[in-house]
Amino acid sequence: xxxxxxxxxxxxxxxxxxxxxxxxxxxxxxxxxxxxxxxxxxxxxxxxxxxxxxxxxxxxxxxxxxxxxxxxxxxxxxxxxxxxxxxxxxxxxxxxxxxxxxxxxxxxxxxxxxxxxxxxxxxxxxxxxxxxxxxxxxxxxxxxxxxxxxxxxxxxxxxxxxxxxxxxxxxxxxxxxxxxxxxxxxxxxxxxxxxxxxxxxxxxxxxxxxxxxxxxxxxxxxxxxxxxxxxxxxxxxxxxxxxxxxxxxxxxxxxxxxxxxxxxxxxxxxxxxxxxxxxxxxxxxxxxxxxxxxxxxxxxxxxxxxxxxxxxxxxxxxxxxxxxxxxxxxxxxxxxxxxxxxxxxxxxxxxxxxxxxxxxxxxxxxxxxxxxxxxxxxxxxxxxxxxxxxxxxxxxxxxxxxxxxxxxxxxxxxxxxxxxxxxxxxxxxxxxxxxxxxxxxxxxxxxxxxxxxxxxxxxxxxxxxxxxxxxxxxxxxxxxxxxxxxxxxxxxxxxxxxxxxxxxxxxxxxxxxxxxxxxxxxxxxxxxxxxxxxxxxxxxxxxxxxxxxxxxxxx
Length: 555
Fold this sequence. Notes:
15 helices; single chain; 24 strands; six-stranded mixed beta sheet; 555 residues
């Protein structure tokens, strides 16, 4: 008979004392259990992998630390957690289970009070250098149940979401994990504390992550788009799937680049009118004057539509000839479609003519300049490089930033086998850089994978097989019988990071600059210096949220 244990997890947050901000060559804790909010400061004591105990071991942690499936378990499992969030925000936590025996048909039930929505996903893992890193999130409202394997940790991601009308204060939620017979094996009480203010969309940065149609065509069995166009009937079915991916990103506060329908299609109007769609691409690469003019003629008399339109001139110029070509394309766009913003990313600050560098040259020919985040460190340091854009931004232009398959440590990125705190802190660095937007090259770069994306995230084999997850935050649901996309721990962290960025921009307006800067310095001091301690991160975020709540209340 299966052993049953009922573990009541009281929802009280215990803050971990702040430590100095530093980053070494070793990850914070590859067991995934260090830095969680526990009753013991630090919370880093662990037991070896496996489960010699004859009882279920379970623990709660924040929503971004990565719990290694074949890693260690905490010596003193955390038995308390509070999720802090503003109104109109999403935030998660995790419940990890280490079972002494195999168990099939495990289910999760969540009881949340009115005003909050909650969902659960089982974290799927990928083996990288011997470790089982969690990433893909398989929603339990789709697959209904999952299995536990003896001696391995299975982790459930719990996402809470508030609205503008959610009452402020503490909300008690209950999460019940049941075995295949329907008996409760773990019951967790979680407190969701909602601050008495709403995240203001006016402070949110713009974000653009491309959705690759050729990857969808390949993974969903339509064929190879690179080999030629599909029959229109198949393309229409493919657009339906593309729309699912676009809508999911939009729900996360991210624009997918190309709209689900061509701008000339009347069905695109719904998105053009949607205030959540802050940017969309009207074209890219070599200028097709006829197509650009037709699309421009549709949007030019609607100021709201025109203000959102972007043209991606040329990707990552690294030579003078490429800079000249970019300038030529941008000039054509400005001639044919005045008011459409030209945008391009670059990672090398090359010299153009011995006097002007790429940064200066691109400011003359782009409406949105997109230097890679590492340039804020490599070109004279953070404050010096930020000053390079002051006059540019004052003239009404914008600055985005981006990462891709590099930079690597000590810079932050969004790789599968990288600590989750890096993904959150990345957007605090984006705030520090003064960026108006975040650009990322793809959400579903699966085209070049040799296997199912759920089994491997070696997405750029033509460059390296040592990078996992570059250009891919999403997983195809069709592997489990549905067309919808599945999220990942990294995409959840990106969404949370964007919301953190909004919180910081609101705080900048309402709080003391000197106090806010000191708090942010505890998380990140430069593009190469950031904390590895999630306890520090959580404490700073809560401090800022509490201070902003007090300031906005007038108390």
